[in-house]
Amino acid sequence: MEWESVIGLEIHAQLATKSKIFSSASTAYGAEPNTQACAVDLGLPGVLPVVNQEAIRMAAKFGLATGSNVSKHSVFARKNYFYPDLPKGYQISQFELPIVEKGKMEIELEDGSKRIIGITRAHLEEDAGKSLHEDFHGMTGIDLNRAGTPLLEIVSEPDIRSAKEAVAYMKKIHSLVQYLEICDGNMAEGSFRCDANVSVRLKGQEEFGTRAEIKNINSFRFVERAINYEIERQIDVIESGGEVIQETRLYDADKDETRSMRSKEEANDYRYFPDPDLLPVILDDAYIESVRNTLPELPKEKHQRFVSEYHLTDYDAGILTSSRELADYFETVAKQLAGDAKLVANWVIGDLSARVNKEDISIRQSPVTAKMLAGMLKRIEDNTISGKIAKDVFNAMWSGEGDADTVIENKGLKQITDSSAIESMIDDIIASNPQQVEQYRSGKDKLFGFFVGQAMKISKGKANPAQVNEILKQKLNG
Amino acid sequence: MSLGPDEVKKIAHLARLGINESDIDDYASNLSNILDLVAQMNSIDTRNVPPMAHPQDVGQRLRADEVLEENQRDRFQKIAPQTENGLYLVPKVIE
Q: For the whole model, what pTM was predicted?
């Protein structure tokens, strides 16, 4: 039997506002517990929520960037359930009339093929607090600093057909919200997380199978693994004669499996109703147009521009525009150089990205700034250093030894371009290796590399490689 | 429309209300009366009436994104039954 999986994602993006969605308390991450939980966030009697205009603007921005309909009339609703990190006993969310509806996102898969994933809706809601189950004498500790942080919940259509597609879609949304500057995208801090609805059906079958919802997945790797595990699990259940039950499951990264959360049927009875404390949010055309005018260049447009303006390959432009900070870094460097942007792309995609990934920091935190990299690449362009020596310069800059010119000066890395100096060095090499010279001249071409190696060794990598090649050829063949 | 005792119990549980077994019949009939009223309203043709989420026909006023609240944790936690290291403590909940 051939199975097909059907996946929909609900992505929660914390909006990068300074204050909460319904109160003026700070949303800054990492504060002492409950120091940013005000009377509104605590749900004390007599308080009233007041909507943060930035949260509305950010949601509208997302809607416009995904070709969605930004609703001129959206309504906040109460979603009722009891849990200690939700002090009011309800979460203010949106239900029947969300602020954003009917958008789409194009994803690209590893084989280069493209697919459109529908965005059903994106609605505004408040985040809950955090429950800490560590040792508090058998009790649970509650930190409500996060309560009331604005969330945009982005709900996809069940258009996704594999774990890989789910990851590609999630990465696209992750990149977009950062381009739009509406979410910092920090997954480790929970600013960007997702729930996955997964079901399987026989290939060709029209109706959907019963789905399970996997909650709170906070990394791309875990999304892929959790979905793949869940697909296998459901197929096993059905093939051994069982039935998939509709339930909420948790992904356990340590064991690489999903497991059922305490199945509470009535827990899903949220009894939504319009929140009487809040009036409908009314937006007009002029407002929506004013938000549209603030949209930055989006990833797809930037990608095309990088290809046409900097003559990059489609592949390189794709990598460089995958995040806004990477694209901005590249462009800052490229603008300062006269020559080939391909050199810049190679360094940004290669050495810089490798180093940043290895140290698990963001491009913005790179000790080698765009200005410093540009300074170094200029020295490659004007032949002060070779590409090989540049790697040493880059490492020195990374460890805080100053900008490229300082490093080149202090370490004496300036390339030797004086041809008479290179010639005399090569004369010495030829004189002291008569056997290799003999072999080379009798047809062992491969030995050419040996002579280049000697020249680089003696010059400590500083001899201009093009000149070394040229002079060597002359002398050996002559 | 009439509610049975099981539905009353379920509603009470969802609202986390403790109710006496002996009151269930009363609740059932009172709640059923309310639902009957809703059913009566439902029978009116409202096809040409736009849905209303709030009785006041105005839009929500929005506030500027500014942090104005100061830390008042000590005051709030004075009325909490139990706190530790700045956290509110509640009976253990495990998912």
A: 0.82
